[in-house]
Design a protein that fits this description.
This protein is of the alpha/beta class. The protein contains 18 helices and 10 strands. The chain has helices at residues 6-12, 22-85, 96-108, 121-130, 152-156, 168-178, 203-211, 226-230, 244-254, 267-289, 294-315, 319-322, 325-336, 341-350, 355-360, 367-381, 387-396, 402-410, and strands at residues 88-92, 113-117, 132-133, 137-141, 146-149, 161-164, 188-190, 217-221, 235-240, 259-264. The strands form 2 sheets. Strands 5-2-1-6-7-8-9-10 form an 8-stranded mixed β-sheet, with helices on both faces. 38% of the residues are buried. Residues 12-20 have low confidence and may be disordered.
Length: 418
Amino acid sequence: WKVIGRRDVERKVRTPSRATSGSDRGGLEAAMDDILLRKSKDMRIDKIKSSVEDKQVLESWEKLMRWARIKESKEQEEEKELMEKVTKVCVFGGGSFGTAMGTLLARKKSQLEVVLLLRDPKMCATINDLHRNSKYLPDYDLPDNVHATTDPTEALRDADFIIHAIPVQSSTTFLAAIKHRIPESLPILAVSKGLEVGTGKMMSEVIPDALGRDQPVVFLSGPSFAVEMMQKRPTTVVAASKDVQLARTAQLLFACPYLRVNTSSDVIGVEVAGALKNVLAIAAGVVEGLDLGNNALAALTAQGCSEIRWLSRKMGAKSATLQGAAGVGDIMLTCFVNLSRNRTVGVRLGKGESIEEILASSTQVAEGVATASVVVHLASRYKVALPVLTAVARIIAGQLSPREAVYGIMNLPQIEER
């Protein structure tokens, strides 16, 4: 009775209020049989449909796996050929991300020499003696084939690649000082994110200007915390270069079971998104610090994404880049996760600390602090209104309190979504 449903039976037979007669019972039983038959037929049809859908899902997955096996076979040959040739990689800087990328390569090939070029002799000694980056990644052992030096000549001698992990604001001075030691054909794989204060230059402009020449360069960016890479957790980054083959080489060099590397020719999109997301992350942290709730956080982040898109498109970026790992992917990670340095700065600002107090107590660089002022100049240059990103610059400059900034934005005129 529960399976059939009382209403279904009542639609088939209208039973009078008097005692049920034999003929009424017969009609009721016939109606029940008819409904059971129909229900059974419907269940068989649903089962067939479900079976067809399951088969389609399986076929779709198997098709994807067949494609992957074909591609993987070809890529493994290319990767093997590349890794056999690579004997040494030099990492500029001893921060967390440069160390993590160097560690990845050292793990990938135990015969590979990975050299960190540092300024601090004590840090060099610690890395060489204890095989740990005690300042930035104290909980993780470094492979035996990773070592450090303060000598640029030693670090660069016979290197096949450079990983540039020097903070953006220090890159011009650093590169200009050692440019005569860097061979013109030596590829640089830049992982620094940000815009240079005073010039508004991206790293794709900083590097050639500092070296005084064109250099083979790939820019790597995406949602990637150094700690999780040290833990071998699944990660995706984008390798962007005008030289498609060089981007492919970077892809083969870094790709491993826990790191996917997508390629792109949209250098502007990858760089601008990687720089501006740091400013947006400060704004997201401010909302958290003020305890304004999840609705406010989602609204502010969505507005910030729009502002990054508006400016990036004016600068020549592609929409697809901004919607991918180097765009939205990196924005989500930096804005929503506590490991983000820039988000942490915003949280502390929201709770009432001054920017001077925050920077004085920080051991790592939060690029968004310096980048915020540059964004204002870019907005003026490209004639784009960026309320959220501009508000961050004003908070950092001490011109506006975090709460005033948030409610100032909330009280802007209502607009059409775009």
